[in-house]
């Protein structure tokens, strides 16, 4: 019988026969820790392996993205614990200026199709956007991966999700993602891998693929793969500086535990209501609710394409009086392009607060927290109670965020 | 191994933010302090009322959300003997196994078990006994059972590597 993508990737990384349900030991290509969890990884490493070296410093990274730069002493201390450890071990640090670690792995050409990467970020599985297996884990797990370069992994079954239809602006990859999340729910892919395919998926840009793959965690899934197209492969080749990069594809006779068809023809802009990402509605069902603040950013929607869309909508206009629009680019690269290509001017003139890169409020960082009674529209991926403070967070696309910012209330972007 | 404990019962989608709040992940790492904040935003009575060997019983997708392993370790530190749920988030599943916290997946038992009742779990036989009857659960994969029985990932690998 043929193999799914995850079965093929795991098989390349272990010496055992790979079948769903089996626990195997795999070799890991990349292991990372962020400032959330990083210091605990170091503490675990030191406690369990004393003065040992990591298995391979060149495959090990720190990326500080949660509270970057640190705005409190515990985070500052923990970042410094990681820096000191990294220096002793010869590990590269992507420091507080660099942005979200998972995006850095993509943009620096470190993670490539078919790779296995683990880290202390529960959205590391967004690497599925490249057809790679990324996995978030706890601190003991990551310390173990630092030390041995290996981890145990239960081979999951795979669900095939076929998305038919075409996206037409202002409906975006985020709306498609929320529509899929609505259909699958928070448990629809629990413990499973997903393979996304269909015409709506094929036409997604890399940024759109990242948006979709980043929210597989919210569907309960281990990872969601999107087979790289020529555009994505060309990006990986250019960023990695090497040519021999190919996609891992599923065999035609691979076994799927379930196939789900979703038709997004005529899809309207989507919104997740407080306090569950999977509580998805059409934006027009909650239209008119007063908005106090906007958060543009996160590993789901903090990329160039997202900012470009927002700048396009806000150009020459002003954010509604009293609305605080906070924008955090995912990486320094995006931040730099905004500054140099004139988009930062557009955002500034519209009244947006633009800060340097990182996870921002999506990870309870320093930009984008809410107070009691505050209503926030966020382009992030989670709106659990308490996650972004005491207020209520709705999850939306960048276009819905921008249009709602202009009106000071939840507004569907297809009406303007 | 046989576990007998009182039940603390919750619903579906219990996420890691309510099991162990993110705001404490950096400032608190002492087991006793961590135990004090377990389930703080879900059930304020839990941390002060839980006894060694008690069992958490929940619905689907227990432990969803972030990758923080404190969500598993805080439960272990406050004495929880096992978590019984209809299903588990996979990151939480790993963290619990790595921490040596037993998990039991059962589609039927959680709906039948009453809050506060005392249940008995026999891990070797794979049975869970409550007032409503006896439920069976499948054994964990061999490798996972090995990790759990050793007390977690670190003791397991030490044993495997022959350093202990």
What would you note in describing this structure?
- The complex is a heterodimer of chains A (416) and B (164).
- By secondary structure, chain A is of the alpha/beta class.
- Chain A has three domains: 5-154, Aconitase, domain 3; 158-263, Aconitase, Domain 2; 270-415, 2-Layer Sandwich (Aconitase, domain 3).
- Chain A is built from 14 helices and 18 strands.
- In chain A, the strands form five sheets. In chain A, strands 4-3-2-5-6 form a five-stranded parallel sheet, covered by helices on one side. Chain A has a five-stranded parallel sheet with strand order 16-15-14-17-18.
- Chain A is globular, with a radius of gyration of 20 Å.
- The N and C termini of chain A lie far apart (51 Å).
- The mean pLDDT of chain A is 96.
- Chain B has helices at 16-19, 31-36, 46-49, 70-77, 90-99, 109-112, 142-150, 153-161; strands at residues 2-9, 55-58, 82-85, 103-105, 118-122, 127-130, 133-136.
- With 164 residues, chain B is α/β, with parallel strands linked by helices.
- Chain B is built from eight helices and seven strands.
- Chain B has one domain (2-139): Alpha-Beta Barrel (Aconitase, domain 4), CATH 3.20.19.
- The chains are: A alpha/beta (416), B alpha/beta (164).
- Chains A and B meet through helix 2, helix 3 and helix 5 of A and helix 5, helix 7 and helix 8 of B.
Briefly characterize the structure.
The complex is a heterodimer of chains A (416) and B (164). Chain A is built from 14 helices and 18 strands. Chain A has 416 residues and is α/β, with parallel strands linked by helices.
The topology string of helices and strands of chain B comes to EHHHEHEHEHEEEHH
Count of individual domains of chain A? 3
**For this structure, what is the CATH homologous superfamily of chain B?**
Aconitase, domain 4
Query: Which two chains form the greatest contact, residue counts included?
Result: A-B, 39 and 41 residues
**What's the total number of strands of chain B?**
7
Main CATH class of chain B: Alpha Beta
Major sheet details of chain B: 7 strands, mixed
CATH-derived topology of chain B: Aconitase, domain 4
Low-confidence stretches of chain A: none
Low-pLDDT stretches of chain B are: none
CATH superfamily annotation of the largest domain in chain A:
Aconitase, domain 3
Strand content of chain A: 15-25%
Helical percentage of chain B: 25-40%
Number of helices of chain A: 14
Structural class of chain B: alpha/beta
CATH architecture of the largest domain in chain A: 2-Layer Sandwich
